[in-house]
């Protein structure tokens, strides 16, 4: 990954998207503060259609483009937030795009219900992963139970997974995989937001 390359991170948006699970990710990738290479990353939203979607928090989001048109070679990562539509056919386009990304060696990050959708599609059968709880995935009849980890966020090759109660850990894993920050900055960010230690703030101010 060239440090001079302009990279686009794609966020899937759909009705009932769980706002709080990706807010930390989107804000910190988009604003460029403390980035290892300022201006390197940009965020875009993708959806099954181009009409506005309504998040779980009631915000309306107008997608930038259709997920069907998204090519792995034009993306640095696909992020799949939690939602209430993951067990339905409405979520099929996002699962198939995740499969396409993983087959192409481009990272996918899924949290909460999105991990359930990937489990149902067999995408967690051969990768270490986590989710809301082991029982949550076991109830879906998937075959990856032996690879489940009782951790806030797990990275295995090109797949990042996390549970609904771990938005900061999810963000940290994404930042690490994309090399958004140098390690000391990433550690300070987690100290502030994950450990809720004010020392992280002062470390960032001096970065």
TrEMBL record:
TM ranges: none
Keyword Cell inner membrane applies: no
InterPro entries: Class_I_gatase-like, DJ-1/PfpI
One Pfam family, short name: DJ-1_PfpI
Record Gene3D superfamilies: 3.40.50.880
Residue span(s) of domain DJ-1/PfpI: 9-175
Keywords attached to this entry: Glutamine amidotransferase
Protein name, entry field: Type 1 glutamine amidotransferase family protein
Organism: Kribbella ginsengisoli
């Amino acid at each position: 990954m060239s440090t001079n390359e302009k990279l686009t991170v794609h966020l899937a948006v759909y009705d009932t998207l769980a706002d709080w699970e990706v807010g930390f990710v989107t804000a910190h990738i988009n604003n460029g503060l403390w980035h290892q290479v300022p201006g390197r990353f940009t965020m875009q939203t993708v959806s099954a259609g181009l009409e506005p979607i309504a998040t779980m928090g009631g915000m309306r989001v107008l997608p930038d483009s259709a997920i069907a048109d998204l090519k792995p070679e034009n993306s640095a990562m696909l992020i799949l937030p939690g939602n209430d539509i993951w067990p339905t056919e409405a979520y099929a386009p996002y699962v198939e795009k995740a499969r396409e990304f993983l087959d192409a060696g481009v990272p996918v990050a899924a949290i909460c219900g999105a991990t359930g959708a990937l489990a149902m599609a067999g995408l967690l059968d051969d990768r270490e992963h986590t989710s809301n709880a082991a029982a949550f995935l076991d109830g879906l009849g998937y075959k990856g139970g032996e690879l489940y980890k009782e951790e806030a966020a797990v990275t295995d090759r090109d797949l990042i997974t996390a549970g609904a109660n771990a938005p900061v850990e999810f963000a940290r894993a994404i930042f690490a995989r994309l090399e958004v920050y140098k390690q000391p900055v990433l550690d300070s960010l987690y100290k502030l937001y994950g450990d809720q230690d004010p020392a992280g703030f002062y470390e960032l101010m001096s970065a």
